[in-house]
Structure formats: structure tokens, C-alpha cells
Design goal:
This protein is mainly alpha-helical and 291 residues long. The chain has one domain. The chain is built from 14 helices and 3 strands. The protein has a 3-stranded parallel β-sheet with strand order 1-2-3. Helix 2 runs antiparallel to helix 7 and helix 5 crosses helix 7. The model has no long low-confidence stretch (mean pLDDT 89).
């Protein structure tokens, strides 16, 4: 029997439900602001690839390990060298598994494999810690990542508004994209094309609408174009983060380019063939090396 003399405030506290998690969009905005503040606080030289690539790298980390332990405190304790090693391992694995995305991802991750990038990783470490402290793994390390475009929101936070206007970039707001996606009624085994895709917000909305209807977005061919190479790189990462499948046909350039879809498809198939050839001849090359 409960103690009748117990503090009513204490009883109310024990009976109250746990605090609700913030909406993914609010959570993403908080992370983006923290990353932008951290990045602008270091000598960034106006670069956007380094902070965005850190968010993309951390997106490969689940919130908890196999034993249910939180991963955030572990990563928060890493130094720049630890972060550099982990980052290279993550992207080596991704490029090995998805070689057809190398040219799309390069504007975002090329610096990771550059020589003498110690200073860059020191700055990246500052960003990674800010992202972890603001709760990135609670978002991207769970299925909540399907509901928001963290990279797109962060790109907007990092890039001055004047920069968007100069590039003629006006991305569709998430709520409008969701309404349009629901109206499309996309069936499985079809294609979805966005000639001004930015970081892929419309693709995310379509994938979410499909899942709401019990359909699998991995059956779709996603065709997109944008003249911002960094945005296309983010869209490529997003396609992995949102688990929309490997059938992406992305192109960096002007949508007025003749046959840009067929050019993008040809580039993808050439890279797949090159990767297959390298894999096929790797044992022979190893044998020759040891002669």
C-alpha cells in the first residue's frame, strides 16, 4: 500500500509518462544549427564538404551496439586520429560495395583520402563532437532518419542565403514535398524523376508515402539531376540513409543537357563494369606482384 504521507508532487512525477522525443524535423534543425555554429567557429575557408561528410559518416553508426550500449559516448571520446581512421574505413567499405557512386560522392568525401589532411580532420573532429552532443545518433542511428533530410537542412544552415540565390536554388519544403508525394500514388517497380532534386527531399517524401501504403521504395528507379555537385553527393548518401535501394541514376549538370538521363545511366554502368573487371583481375594482379 502506498504511503499516504508521500509527497503528491513526487507521486505525480512517478505517474507522469517519459518525455516524448522531438519531431525529426526539429531534431534535425537542432543538429544542423550546432554543426553550423561549430564549423563557422573554426578556420573553415568556406568549405562545406567537411562538415557534411562528418554527418554522413556518423549516419553509418547505429544508436546502440549489439549489447544495447549507447555508441554516442564512445565516439565522443575519440580524438581526431581515431575519427580519421573510422571515417576512412566507413567510406572504403561503402565505395567497395557501391563503386558506381564514386563520381557522385567524390565532391563530398574526396578530402578524406587526400594527403596531409591532418588539419582538416582536426576541424572535422570539432564538427563531429557537436553533432554527437546535439543528438545525431538518436536521429540517424534509428528509423527516424527516414522522416527527415538532415543533410539538406544542414547544407541550408551552412550556406548563406545569398549563396542559394546566386545558384538559383530553391528547394521544395518538406511539408509540400510530402503532400505532393501522397498525391502521386507511386506504385512499385516504377521510376521517379526529379530534374532539380537538390539533396533528394522529394525522393524521401515519395519513399515515406510508399512505406505508409505498404510498398517497397527499393523497387523504384530514382532518376535525379542537379547542377550542385555537393547537393547531388548528399542525395547519394541520402539514398543509402533512407534505404531506397541501389537503382539510383543521378547526374550533376544542367537539366537542359540533352539526354542527361541516358548519360547518367551510362556513367553508372561503366563504373560497375570497371569495378567488376578490377575484382576479376585482382587475384592475377596479386600473383604477378608476388613473382
Amino acid at each position: 500500500m502506498a504511503n499516504s504521507n508521500s509527497d503528491p508532487t513526487d507521486r505525480d512525477r512517478r505517474a507522469s509518462p517519459p518525455p516524448r522525443e522531438p519531431l525529426p524535423a526539429i531534431q534535425a534543425d537542432r543538429i544542423a544549427r550546432a554543426v553550423a555554429t561549430a564549423w563557422h567557429g573554426v578556420d573553415s575557408d568556406g568549405r562545406l564538404d567537411i562538415p557534411l561528410s562528418m554527418l554522413a559518416t556518423l549516419a553509418a553508426v547505429p544508436r546502440t551496439d549489439a549489447k544495447g550500449n549507447e555508441n554516442a559516448p564512445v565516439i565522443a571520446g575519440w580524438g581526431p586520429a581515431d575519427l580519421a581512421l573510422f571515417t576512412r574505413i566507413v567510406w572504403t567499405d561503402i565505395l567497395t560495395a557501391r563503386p558506381e557512386t564514386v563520381h557522385l560522392l567524390y565532391p563530398l568525401i574526396g578530402w578524406i583520402f587526400a594527403e596531409d589532411n591532418t588539419e582538416s580532420f582536426a576541424a572535422a573532429h570539432t564538427v563531429a563532437r557537436a553533432a554527437i552532443r546535439s543528438g545525431q545518433l538518436d536521429l540517424t542511428g534509428t528509423d527516424r532518419r527516414f522522416r527527415v533530410d538532415l543533410l539538406g537542412i544542414t547544407l541550408a544552415a551552412l550556406r548563406p542565403r545569398a549563396g542559394w540565390k546566386a545558384r538559383g536554388q530553391f528547394y521544395t519544403p518538406a511539408d509540400i514535398a510530402s503532400v505532393l508525394a501522397q498525391a502521386l500514388h507511386v506504385e512499385e517497380h516504377r521510376s521517379v524523376t526529379d530534374p532539380t532534386m537538390g539533396t533528394g527531399a522529394m525522393f524521401r517524401a515519395v519513399a515515406e508515402a510508399m512505406r505508409d501504403k505498404g510498398r517497397d521504395p527499393r523497387t523504384i528507379r530514382w532518376i535525379g539531376c542537379d547542377n550542385d555537385a555537393l547537393a547531388v553527393a548528399c542525395a547519394t548518401v541520402n539514398s543509402m540513409m533512407w534505404a531506397i535501394g541501389n537503382d539510383i541514376v543521378f547526374y550533376v549538370g544542367d537539366t537542359f543537357t540533352k539526354d542527361w538521363e541516358s548519360i547518367a545511366l551510362k556513367q553508372r554502368e561503366q563504373l560497375r563494369k570497371l569495378a567488376a573487371d578490377i575484382s576479376r583481375y585482382r587475384p592475377l594482379l596479386a600473383f604477378i606482384k608476388n613473382i
